[in-house]
């Protein structure tokens, strides 16, 4: 199997932001605690939007879109943010929406309140 790795400025560790393996694209957890200029973003709505904007860039680089996403995992710092995260998340995905798991988890940095990873199916792309 051949693999293609995607990376972009800002990755903070020994990993690829996304890996294409066969017909699947695996997108590492995206965080959104800063905007495109590096300024801090507060609140789960702003951070969810930024996570998904970054994911959109990786999907586009792979020749895909949110319509190709089949599974996501959302990591939330607080259960109280679930409805607010959903209000933003829903605007990025059309029906049928991908399968999803949501986990309440500790985050690597205290300012991060949400992280989202995804798997996309890309046959023939």
From TrEMBL:
PROSITE patterns: UPF0076. InterPro entries: RidA, RidA_CS, RutC-like_sf, YjgF/YER057c/UK114. CDD domains: YjgF_YER057c_UK114_family (cd00448). Transmembrane segments: none annotated. It comes from the Bacteria. One of its GO terms (molecular function) is deaminase activity. NCBIfam families: Rid family detoxifying hydrolase. PANTHER family: 2-IMINOBUTANOATE/2-IMINOPROPANOATE DEAMINASE RIDA, 2-IMINOBUTANOATE_2-IMINOPROPANOATE DEAMINASE. This is Endoribonuclease L-PSP, putative. The lineage of its organism: Bacteria, Bacillati, Chloroflexota, Dehalococcoidia, Dehalococcoidales.
């Amino acid at each position: 199997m051949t693999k293609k790795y995607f990376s972009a400025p800002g990755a903070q560790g020994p990993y690829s932001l996304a890996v294409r393996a066969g017909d699947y694209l695996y997108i590492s957890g995206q965080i959104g605690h800063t905007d495109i200029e590096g300024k801090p973003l507060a609140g789960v709505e702003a951070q969810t939007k930024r996570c998904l904007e970054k994911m959109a860039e990786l999907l586009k680089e792979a020749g895909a879109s949110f319509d190709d996403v089949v599974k996501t995992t959302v990591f939330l710092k607080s259960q109280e943010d679930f409805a607010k995260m959903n209000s933003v998340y829903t605007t990025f995905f059309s029906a049928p929406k991908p399968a999803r798991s949501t986990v309440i988890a500790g985050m690597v940095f205290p300012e991060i309140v949400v992280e989202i990873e995804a798997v996309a199916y890309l046959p023939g792309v």
